[in-house]
Amino acid sequence: DIQMTQSPSSLSASIGDRVTITCRASQSISSYLNWYQHKPGGAPKLLIYGASSLQSGVPSRFSGSGSGTDFTLTISSLQPEDFAAYSCQQSYSTPYTFGQGTKLEIK
Amino acid sequence: QMQLQESGPGLVKASETLSLTCNVSGGPVSRYYWNWVRQPPGKGLEWIGYIFYSGSTYYNPSLKSRVTISLDSSNNQFSLKLNSVTAADTAVYYCARTVPGQVWPSLDVWGKGTTVSVSS
Predict the structure, then answer these.
(1) How close, in Å, is residue B41 to chain A by CA atoms?
(2) Alpha carbon of B119 to those of B6, B9, B85: distances in Å?
(3) Rounded distance, CA A86 to CA B4, Å?
């Protein structure tokens, strides 16, 4: 299985901050990397697919980059609704695997 | 817009079978891959497996011996069965959709999840 390692596991930030979350794969996965946002009691939401493509309806302050083994999710200016958990997922090969998640909290 | 909703018992006894259903509304179950994903308390998401509308399945090898995913097109739903459960199977269980033929496969529609606890 491909192991996905996310960092940091938690992050405190303020409204308006620029935030970056990283995800590293245990082997090259090309651009088969997706990012999800999830809030307690809610459905996880696809933000980014193919490492850098913005899912329809997702605000442009979210962006993704990277290829191979190293990837980043950036939120350019944090909004109140962005405080949530974020997970990366590889779809290069089955079984699909996720990072352990990053919890983004208000400072 | 397609919506998914999980349902099933919130409490299952150890050694018994966990059974969940995902009801699909706003579109047919045909033409998609249907996934199950879970999140144990304090841990990351774990992909359980999928079923294609044709009936073909793929299961995570870590769970393969205990998992069955099935499709009920007449009721527009699909199901998960996990047998011989233990406390390690306590988790929030999600169903999710994958559109076939995408260059970059993803889980683009999810249910809100249902919590299942395993009691000893």
Answers:
(1) 12
(2) 20, 12, 9
(3) 21
Q: From residue A25, how far is each of A68, B5, B33 by CA, in Å?
A: 8, 31, 24
One-letter amino acid for residue A11 of the chain: L
The answer, for B58 touching chain A at a CB cutoff of 8 Å, is: yes
What's the gap in Å between the CA of A34 and the closest CA on chain B? 7
Count other Cβ atoms within 10 Å, centred on residue A69. Answer: 16
A32 and B105: CB-CB below 8 Å? yes
Tell me the chain A residues in contact with residue B104 when contact means C-beta distances shorter than 8 Å: 31-32, 34, 49-51, 53, 91
Q: Which residue of A has its CA nearest to B97?
A: A46
Structure tokens at B68: 């069955």
Contact B44 A101 (CB under 8 A): yes
In this predicted model, what pLDDT tens digit does every residue of B96-116 receive, in sequence order? 999 999 999 999 999 999 999
Where are any strands of DSSP class E within A1-107? Answer: 4-7, 10-13, 19-25, 33-38, 45-49, 53-54, 62-67, 70-75, 85-90, 97-98, 102-106
B40-99: pLDDT as tens digits: 999 999 999 999 999 999 999 999 999 999 999 999 999 999 999 999 999 999 999 999
